[in-house]
Amino acid sequence: MKKKTILVAILSFFLSTCIGYFYGRGTQDMVAEEPMEITLEESMEVNQKTNTIATDGQLIYQYYYTKDHTLKEQQEVTPDFLVGLTREQLESIYPNWQLILFSPDKVILRCKIEKKSDEVYLLAIYDGCVTLFYENEDMKLEMKEKTSIPIAVLPEREQKQLQEGIYVYGEENLIKLLSDFVS
């Protein structure tokens, strides 16, 4: 009798485990096959998670001048006509621009320009001091600023370079070079 009770208990245990397993598995399969109903609020949440341009985002236009390897940037708040656009929509509006970065808060577009930038400077000597000239619209040099750096305090190698004239393309490169002379 005791063996029979133990045997019935074991069989009941395995049977209930098997039934529970198959019932649970069948329910999961049934749930997975049912179409999901999405409320309007949930749909809006999903759309907000897709990458579209935000209202208060930042739009950066980069202009890369290939002849002197100068990169200029123009930053602005995202214009209204771009708000809500996807990456593909933006690329269709700017087909000749390279999309460098696309996120809801920041978009960077780059355009290559096959010429020199209009920021061409010349560092040279004038009146015994390091002097900055710039190239005007007529491609002629005009004095922009005479520094207070006397040529005599500079090492011989830099004096020689300045006597020949050092052309600098772009304001950032100019600032770096001037800081080298001052330090």
Explain the overall architecture.
With 183 residues, this protein is of the alpha+beta class. The chain is elongated. The chain has a four-stranded mixed beta sheet with strand order 2-1-4-3, with no helix packed on it. The protein has a four-stranded antiparallel beta sheet with strand order 7-6-5-8. A hairpin with a 4-residue loop joins strand 1 and strand 2. It has five helices and eight strands, in the order H-H-E-E-H-E-E-E-E-E-H-E-H. Among the domains are: 63 residues, Bypass-of-forespore C, N-terminal domain (Ubiquitin-like (UB roll)); 63 residues, no CATH class.
Radius of gyration: 35 Å
Q: What is CATH's topology name of the domain at 51-113? A: Ubiquitin-like (UB roll)
Identify the CATH homologous superfamily of the domain at 51-113.
Answer: Bypass-of-forespore C, N-terminal domain
Shape: elongated
How many helices? The count is 5
For the largest beta-sheet, the strand count, sense and barrel status come to: 4 strands, mixed
What series of H and E elements makes up the topology?
HHEEHEEEEEHEH
